[in-house]
Design brief:
Elements lengths: L5 E9 L9 E11 L5 E11 L8 H7 L3 H4 L5 H9 L7 E4 L2 H7 L2 H4 L4 E3 H8 L8 H8 L15 H16 L4 H9 L22 H7 L5 H13 L17
Parallel strand pairs: 1-4, 4-5
Antiparallel strand pairs: 1-2, 2-3
Helix pairs in contact: 6-8, 7-8, 10-11
Organism: Mesorhizobium liriopis
Protein name: Exonuclease domain-containing protein
Keywords: Exonuclease, Hydrolase, Nuclease
Length: about 250
């Protein structure tokens, strides 16, 4: 079921990054809703649930979210907890998360009903390219979103506070660009505004010469490749596709 007036932001805390070797220990959600005036707002519907991951939580991840085995011992398993959150009554236009590729590893189409995802990280690259960085929390303090209640947004690295912060970014994105545009950007690799590493770190793509861009256009990171190729394409004056280098094999 599709509800074009609601996007549900999801945040997960887990035992690690790779299912099925790792499992979810907490899921948080925060709805962003569209009013009759067409403007999007952070809604009243939010929450969080502990999830039993079916395995011990490693100390290295406990140190991030501070969820311990005793917290989740009596919690439902993921297949029991997820559907009611990911497929809420009344439906959603989309699900959203910051760096949504991580959540999508655990929130499979079977659990979401095939919902599309908005990646607020990818959309922030497009809408706010001058941000010093693009993590959820750096965007939060760089932008200082209106209406964000500090008490709800803390502690960081817990599912509900992080979803709540992401929802404020998403609200502002939806009021700057259409839902369809955010979905389209989210379906593409990340368009990085600046070189992320190496000797050229911090430089805007537009300031690099063609030879340097051609080198980046063969990088093994898809976001770097996409960003360099987009700049190369933008330099074409006749409207035809830019002659991009072949991918080449990675040794």
């Amino acid at each position: 079921m599709t509800n074009t007036a609601r996007v549900r932001v999801i945040d997960l805390e887990t035992t690690g990054s790779r299912p099925p070797a790792h499992g979810v220990v907490e899921i948080g959600w925060q709805d962003v809703v569209r009013g009759q005036d067409g403007r999007w707002t952070v809604g009243d519907e939010r929450g969080a649930l502990f999830v039993n991951p079916g395995r011990p939580i490693p100390p290295v991840t406990m140190a991030v979210h501070h969820i311990i085995d005793a917290d989740v011992a009596e919690a439902p398993f993921w297949h029991e907890a997820a559907p009611g959150v990911l497929k809420p009554h009344g439906g959603v236009a989309a699900l959203a998360a910051h760096r949504a590729a991580f959540e999508e590893r655990f929130c499979t189409p079977k659990l979401t009903g095939g919902a599309r995802w908005i990646c607020t990280w990818k959309c922030a690259l497009r809408l706010w390219p001058d941000s010093p960085s693009f993590s959820n929390q750096i965007l939060r303090y760089w932008r200082m979103p209106e209406g964000l209640v500090r008490e709800i947004s803390l502690p960081a690295h817990r599912a509900l506070p992080d979803a709540y912060v992401t929802a404020h970014h998403l609200r502002d994105m939806l009021n700057e660009a259409s839902l369809d545009q955010l979905l389209a950007w989210s379906d593409e690799p990340g368009l990085l505004p600046r070189v992320p590493a190496g000797p050229e770190r911090g430089q805007y793509w537009r300031d690099l010469d063609d030879a340097t861009l051609q080198r980046f256009a063969k990088d093994r990171d898809e976001d770097i490749r996409f960003s360099a190729r987009t700049e190369l394409n933008s330099r074409r004056t006749d409207g035809s596709p830019s002659p991009l280098p072949a991918q080449g094999s990675l040794l």
